[in-house]
Each structure stands twice: as structure tokens, then as C-alpha cells.
Write a structure and sequence with these properties.
The complex is a heterodimer of chains A (75) and B (568). Chain A is of the alpha+beta class and 75 residues long. Chain A has a single domain (2-74), classed as ACT domain (Alpha-Beta Plaits). Chain A has helices at 15-25, 54-62, and strands at 2-10, 29-38, 41-49, 67-74. Chain A has a 4-stranded antiparallel beta sheet, covered by helices on one side. The longest helix of chain A has 11 residues, at 15-25. Chain A starts with a strand and ends with a strand. With 568 residues, chain B is of the alpha/beta class. Helices cover 36% and strands 16% of the residues of chain B. Chain B is built from 21 helices and 20 strands. In chain B, the strands form 4 sheets. A 6-stranded parallel beta sheet of chain B has the order 3-2-4-5-7-6, with helices on both faces. Chain B has a 6-stranded parallel beta sheet with strand order 11-10-9-12-13-14, with helices on both faces. Chain B has a 6-stranded parallel beta sheet with strand order 16-15-17-18-20-19, sandwiched between helices. In chain B, strand 12 (280-284), helix 12 (290-293) and strand 13 (304-308) form a beta-alpha-beta unit. The chains are: A alpha+beta (75), B alpha/beta (568). At the A-B interface, strand 1, helix 1 and helix 2 of A face strand 6 of B. The structure holds thiamine diphosphate. Residues 394-398, 421-424, 447-450, 473, 475, 478-481 of chain B line the site of thiamine diphosphate.
Chain lengths: 75, 568
Amino acid sequence: MRQRLHVTLRDAEGALQRLLGTAERRGFRVCAMHAEAGGDACEVALTLEGARDAALLVRQIQRLHEVRAVKWTPG
Amino acid sequence: MADTGAPETIVRSGAQWLVAALEAEGVDTLFGYPGGAIMPVYDALVDSRLRHILVRHEQGAALAADGYARAGGRIGVCLATSGPGATNLLTGIANAYMDSVPMLAITGQVASPLMGTDAFQEVDIFGMSLPVVKHSFIVRRAEDVAATVREACAIARGGRPGPVLIDLPKDVQLARAAAAAARAPGGGPAAQDPRPDAAALAAAVTLLARSERPLLYVGGGVGIARAEPALRALVAATGIPVVCTLKGLGAIEPDAPEFLGMLGMHGSPAANHAVQSCDLLLVAGARFDDRATGKLDSFAPGARVIHIDTDAAEIGKLRGADVALGGTLGIALEALAAQVRRPAGAIADWRAHCAALRTLYANRYDAPGQDIYAPALLHELSRAAGPGAIVACDVGQHQMWVAQHWRIAACDRHLTSGGLGAMGYGLPAALGAQLARPDAKVFCVSGDGSIMMNIQELATARRYGIPVKIVLLDNGCLGMVRQWQELFFEQRYSEIDLSDNPGFVALAEAFGIEAFGIGRREEVPAAIARLLAADGPILCHVRIDPRANVWPLVPPGKSNGEMMDAAA
Ligand SMILES: Cc1ncc(C[n+]2csc(CCOP(=O)(O)OP(=O)(O)O)c2C)c(N)n1
């Protein structure tokens, strides 16, 4: 199942690595990604593929300290 | 000159800011080991009132900080140099992550211009530790050091606690800066309402009122949240029977009639049978770990689930919840206790069934023979030591015997590497616990495999006169692995023999630690008395039968209803 996530990060050192690592470790493959830093934020659009519960992944991403917002569009 | 009222500008080095910030956070003890990339911090320590405990291996520093945090209810701090010092901390950091222990790990790093050049003793500890920290920082400017320490401590302690790493390049430690700059506010989880959602609470109350066979499944989250009183009040108000995970042990008194023991792989049959037949599982601060659930899809097959957890990402992770109660765990438990109008009499049949299971499967200590029976020794020792004693254990059969047979009166008196299962945890954790709680009797129960993983910390016990009491259960092998090879690998024993162990009594004495050995059952009472009477660190070497196994056992991949026992 493909999932689209839009994540707003505080643009801190390691924030992107932490986000991608979380998705991969929790069982999702990163199929496509676009990230753009501006001001103190970084906007990340991700397309992920995985069989696990994406709502759970969203909660796991929300725990990360640089994450300001997550929008999730299934499918 | 007119007084402007402006505060005097303080100029300090990054290292001095670090030390000052730790003091301001109320830290009084840290565990560490020096080296090139952290030397400015060690220099700043000379002028500070922080107590630095020089361990003999950085893994010991991280695990001692963990024990200090768990037993003391405060943040544990460890410190190491770059490269090998930092990598040696990693196991301890991972341990704190898996068991949600508030920890600050500070590592020196090569100077900023050298970072990324494969410099001497450079490793990317920030990158290496990403999966096992709650959060981490590389501090790039001396003026950010103090604010980073403040933020790191708040993150480590807040919500579901965990380890936070601060990597500090050497030039940042040396640079002088005027004042701590304010940091841009972090992202992170939005501040949670500490109260559970009212509709969810009402739904939980309804489920509880309708349930005929409710059961509380209690995990380490209850102890972490200091919610034992709320849990006990809920049990008192409702009479609901209780099972605990390894880390939940102590949340309820060991003698409480509702307590059925630990559930899971080496759980009590009473607990496992109750779980399999309950119709409602009230999960408090537990996470459906595979060691607790056995085969997940046959775990508590007839139960609806109310899941209470501070960490929303734990709810629904492995088993769906009919009702999710977030917020602060203690507040949710209190709210339930206040609202559930159902006296224990309403579930009298179920309570009687559970009480019968408890009696039927009560632990027995009358094993035949003259060899020392480790479960009986641990049971007797914990009785003699009293409910205030703290026990830190290593990993293996002895760890499970402690869980089954030690009378654990509170969660913070049982320190065990639950999530990571790291051999080597016991001794440094006991040292940290004793330093956090100087008045408590602190025991370390270890095995002959595990003790060797951090044996060097006997030198730390000796140096600081830390009076931990070490009970070394020596079966001459890696007992837990041996047991699995016996039961599940057709007795094809592979690399488990430790019969050439060093003489542990002589070894301890070489470190300057009082030590003695026992091997027969009749020696146990005197050994217990000697351990309890000792003023300083002491080691009791206990020879036990290598063939002794931990029972009962749920075989891997099986349901908790399919326990094996000694007779099998
Ligand atoms: C660091 C580490 N390495 C390996 C293991 C795997 N392991 C689990 S229990 C065990 C045997 C432990 O032996 P010992 O400490 O003597 O305890 P016993 O089981 O004999 O009581 C091993 C090797 C582990 N848990 N941790």
C-alpha cells in the first residue's frame, strides 16, 4: 500500500535523517521524496510503501522532536 | 555610574557552560571516562561540585547512569570521549531507550573542522545512535551549550522518558561565549492534555461495568509514571485481578490477593491462564511485548482491550484497542477508580477462579536434593532483606528466577534489562542504584556469563566503597542458552560451556572486594546473614546445578496457554 505523507520539520541537524530512518525502521520503503528547507522549517513530501498500519507510523513520526506537523493521505 | 539593572555578562567556555547547566538541572552525580575529545569538560569538572564516578568501561558508565535513574527517580548522566568512548556507551543508551529511562549521554567529538574527515577517534555517534535515542543534538556553538542541556534534560524526563545524546565538538568545548542564547522552540509532540478524553473514559467505564472477567495487565509504564498508588486504588475499588510484565513487577504488592504473578514466557501459570480466559484486558503502561504475549494472535483471545498509555504511539501498535486512554497514566487510572461503580462482589466468581489459580500454581521451594536451589535462595534472601531492598539483575535464567521469586515491593526496586536484555547490566546498575539510594540495601544477582561482561566495575565498587551485595549464581555455563539448546535444539550444546571460569572468589578479592563461596543448601542461611551484615561491597559465589532450568516456559511461537513445565 502506498501512502503519502507531508511532514513539516524544524530545520535542525539530523531531522531529515531521523524522519527517514523512522519510516524505514518501522517497515516502510521510501519510494519518492521531495524536501525543501526555507526559514527555520523543512517541508518534506514522502511517498511510502509498506504493509503496516500507516496511522501508527504517523503517531511514531509525531513523537519526533523536530516534527511540527504531519499530513497523511492514504493510497 | 547608574545601575542599569542589566545582569552581569558571564563569559565561560563551552565546557564550563556544560558543567554549570548540569548543576542548574539539579544533577549531582555523573558516570564517565575521560579521553582526548572530552578533556575540556574534564578540566571544567575540577572546579565543579558535580560528583564524577570514574568507571572502568564506558558501558559501565551508561548502565550505572541507568541504575541511578531508575532507583533514584531522576535523570542519569554519563560522559565519554569521542570514537571508542562513544561507541562503548551505545549499549547502555539502547538499554535506556528500550526501557524508557531518563538519561543524558554526553560525548566529546573531534573539533568541528575535523568532523567528516575520518579524524583520529572520530565516529558519527549522532548518526549511530539515532535509532536508540529519544532525541539527540550536535552542539555547534558554545553559546548554545547551556540551552541544549536544558532542552535535553526536559526531553529525557518528559512524557515517556528516554535517553538524549549531546555530542560536543572539542572546539565548542573550548570556545568562550558570553551567555546562553535562547533556542528556537522545538517541534515535537504537541503538549498533551494530561486528562483522558471524557468520551473514551465513559466507554471504558461501560466496558468495565459489563465485563464478567476483567483483568489488569500492568507494565513498566506504571512505575515510570509513579502511578502505583493510583493502580492500587483502582484494584482496591474494583477487585480486578492483576498480572504484571517483567517491568511491571512491584506495581502491586506481592502479597495482594489480586496479584497473579508475571505473565508471558516465564510467567506464572496463574497469570497466563487468567489472561487466556479474561473477557476484558485493562492494559496499563504495557506494550504487548512478544516475551509477554507469546503468539500474539492467540493472546487473550476472548478479550476486549482498554489500553492506557502516556505514549500514543504504543496504542494499537501490536493489538488493537477497543478503547484508548491517553494522557497521564496516573490520572487515567485515578479517573477510572473514581468512576467505576462496580464493587468486587460483582465479579466474585471470576475472583474466586483467579484465587484458585493462584493457590494451585503457587511457587514451591521444596526441591529435592542438597544442591542449592536458586529460586529458594532468592526467595529467602528477598524476605530477609525486606521490602526496601533493591535488586539489579543481569540477563539469563537468574534474571527470570529473580522475577519469579524475589518479593518485589515497588517497581523502582527491581532493576532489570527488560527490553534490550543486555548481559552486563546488573553490576553497573546496582552501583548506580546504590549511589542514588545510599540508605537502601542494594543487591546484584548475576550469572557467571553476565558478570564477566562488566566485571571491571568491581574496581569501581572498591574505589568508592559502594556496598553492593553481589550474588553470583554460577552454573558453569550460559544457562539460558543451554536451556534452549536442551529443549529446542535436540541437546546439541554449542558454545555454552563456561567450566573454565576464573575462581570468582579469588577474582573479587583481587579487586579488593570481600568474597566467599557456597555450594550446599545448608550453607544458605549463614550466607544470607553474612551478605546482610556486610558494610562494604561483598560477593557471594553460589555454585548451582548446571542442569537447573527456568520453569514454566512458553516455547517460542506458542500461545501462553501452552506452557511447558519441569515434568514435561
Ligand atoms: C550482551 C548479550 N550477549 C548475549 C546475550 C544472549 N544471552 C541471553 S541469556 C545468555 C546466557 C546468560 O548466562 P549467565 O549470565 O551465566 O546466566 P544464566 O542464564 O546461566 O543464569 C546469553 C548468552 C545477551 N542477552 N546479552
